[in-house]
Amino acid sequence: MGLANFAMCSDGQVIANPRFLRTEERPLARVQRQHAQLATGIRQRRKQHKAVARVHERITFRRHLELL
Is 5 a domain residue? Predict the structure, then answer.
């Protein structure tokens, strides 16, 4: 599911779908796995939660940057 092409210009040039989530799946899985292994309520888990949020933020930032 999803877009095969990101955009097609009037001159026939096709811009491929960048698929930012696919490129970030492995780093995201790694930090989520580390987060899941930590006990609830400890400081390290809160710090790891921020690491997960940073990976999601990086994906979002790259998507928005592509549109500009």
Answer: no
